[in-house]
Amino acid sequence: MDIDKTSGLILHPTSLPSDYGIGDLGKESYKFVDLLRESKTQVWQVLPLGITDNIEYSPYSSKSSILGNTYIISLDQLDNKIFTDKELDEIKINNSDKVDYKLVYENKNNLYNKIFERVNINESKYEDYIDNDLKKQHITFLTLSENFEGSWNTWSKKYQYYSEELFEEVFNKFRSTFTKNIYLQYEFDNQWQKLKSYANSKNVKILGDIPIYVNHNSADVWLNQNLFDLDDNNEMSFVSGAVPDDFTVEGQIWNTALYKWDNHKEEGYKYWIEKLEYNLKNYDYLRIDHFVGFFQFWAIPANEPALNGHWRKGPWKTFFDVVSESINFNKLLAEDLGVVLKETEDILNNFNIPGMKVLQQRIPNDTEHNEIHPKEWGFNIAAYTGTHDSPTIKQWLNEVDDIQIEFFNQYKKNNSSLYESDVWNFISLVWESPCQLAVTTIQDLLELGKEARFNIPGTSEKNWIWRLEDLDILENIKKDLKKLNESTKRA
Fold first, then answer.
1. Distances (CA, A) of 123 to 73, 179, 194, 469
2. Domain segments of the chain: what residues?
3. pLDDT tens for residues 271-280?
4. Model confidence over 259-272: pLDDT tens digits?
5. Which of 101, 162, 259, 260 could bridge to 57 as Cys pair (CB 3.0-4.6 Å)?
6. Contact (CB, 8 A) for 167 and 140
7. pTM for this entry
8. Measured between alpha carbons, how far is 401 from 65 in angstroms, rounded to an integer?
9. CATH superfamily for domain 6-69+205-487
């Protein structure tokens, strides 16, 4: 990554305060950017900003790899104010520390269904917007998915493949839904680019996130059926997941679509180049989730346990050489956690892409180990206290075994300064490492416990819901963070 030694915070926009029950791209986002600037923290890391489903609400399972989550649009900052104050007041929700996605989505849908009557889709700005082929194709899928039940492969045959004729039919037949989607995606892009420009003007960079895999019921698969592992009925033959390990003895089933990498290679990895190009317009840097999947991946037969999976080889021998001709790899970060492979390390070194180290996973739980003190980690690494998938530091300290606590106590003795709080000693261990980027979460800065965990992998309920009730509670912490950034030369 083309940045100097610096620091960052993970906070998904949904976790910000707002008047509508979910964080959005409005005034609190700008206030958070100001807080980052004042604490001399230069990177804001977000999770994927795409459309979520209406079941688990996971940002890692979307109908589109390029469209935005319209439920985090700021209703107060719409360009042409199509909703009245009375309508907005009726869906306001008192701030709380949880997002009630079902209620929020229902409230906003009640407003969004009025868009068709209030927006002229023939305005030049909307016509110019839909002139982008990729955008047009993904919005066509989104419109169909809102009008037909089930996955795309169960629809009438004429709707299972994209064409310009199909676009014209969908545009005319489902004009109210299409108008709503064009308007909302236009507003999302407009608001996000304004926020990103504001952050950049304050010397804050945005680190985005892109999953390696996509949902089967997505525009990506619908538009590129030959690039995915599908059977004769366009169902998934095998699904993605994780091999069983010490943490998940039964493995994990992610249930997203696997790639036919040979077909990608024949097309010069065009799908991935387009996807990366588009996402890099939205972010200054981009974290690729499950990066090791480019080297080898666990393929699980559909509807079978993860234990029945097998390893397959990824496209790494040609993928990086080809894609690097079109994509600036200095903007990428690899989430290379999990299976350790020499090939992954070689690629990261050859292309100067930082990998990740998570301190919670690098404190030994056995007297015999191969771990080293964080002060001995390398520079070309993004060092994390934990990620959005991890326990909070306070939870970790309360739940790990005595051996890990003993190692942690040994590690912290080498800190330049000690805090009364072991949570902050934990953060300081990462900040005092030589790594290029040091990252923690807002929950950990606030020393919150188990109740503030954002996601528990392998579970489907009560994830992604934690949020801040008020940004003012960070005012005092802002000073401590600034001091830590300055003392570790990350300011």
1. 21, 11, 21, 39
2. 6-69+205-487
3. 999 999 999 9
4. 999 999 999 999 99
5. 101
6. yes
7. 0.96
8. 40
9. Glycosidases (3.20.20.80)
